[in-house]
Amino acid sequence: MRQKRKAISPIIATLILIVITVVAGIFLYGFVSGYMGMLSTTTSAPPDVQITPVSYAIGNNTISGALEVTITNAGSSSVSIYPTGSFYFSNGTLAGSATLGTISYSTSSTGTSTVTFTPLTSLTLAPGKTTVVIIELSPSPSNYSVTSGYSYYIKLTTTSGYTITSQTFSP
């Protein structure tokens, strides 16, 4: 005895194919839109900032472990820099932390000179501007010291996440 098979009607089959095609089209549109959006996302150009060491002081009426630097923004937009960073031996080994600040000199009525380091809370440079700051170097571990004959460099980070590396310096 032969059983009679029932098939779906051609209209329902056509509707199922249309639904499958529409779902596939929506999926493809979402994929391509996301991919194209990722490709066309513009990111800001890295800042054009230079850190140039000027002098290093190891005492004598200065802040011990202080490096005077000029920071120049040669770019076309303002740059904000976090006031803390790190300094490294020239081979890339971490040597300690670096804190941006200013120094002030005062003399007491008895003639005693005092040098005070004041950390900065922020540093923002307008386009084309240069500033001179003091960077207090704090070796880590504490038994390290900034020593003549070795080369070092400093890394600071902008608030937009870019890293700025100084020229190397030797005390």
Biggest β-sheet strands, sense, barrel: 8 strands, antiparallel
Rg, Cα atoms, Å: 31 Å
Please bin the fraction of helical residues. Answer: 10-25%
Distance between the ends: 103 Å
| Number of DSSP-assigned strands | 10
Q: What structural class do you assign from the helix and strand content?
A: alpha+beta
**Tally of helical segments:** 1
Q: Estimate the mean pLDDT confidence.
A: 81
Poorly predicted runs of 5 or more residues: none
Principal-axis shape: elongated
One letter per element, helices H and strands E, the order comes to HEEEEEEEEEE
Beta percentage is 35-45%
In short:
The protein is of the alpha+beta class and 171 residues long. The protein has one helix and ten strands, in the order H-E-E-E-E-E-E-E-E-E-E.
Q: How is this structure best described in words?
A:
There is one protein chain. This protein has 171 residues and is α+β, with helices and mostly antiparallel strands. Helix content is 18%, strand content 40%. It has one helix spanning 10-40, and strands at 49-57, 66-73, 79-81, 84-89, 94-107, 113-119, 123-125, 130-139, 152-157, 163-165. The strands form two sheets. Strands 1, 2, 4, 5, 6, 8, 9 and 10 form an eight-stranded antiparallel beta sheet that branches. A two-stranded antiparallel ribbon has the order 3-7. A hairpin with an 8-residue loop joins β1 and β2 (66-73). The longest helix has 31 residues, at 10-40. It is elongated and about 120 Å long.
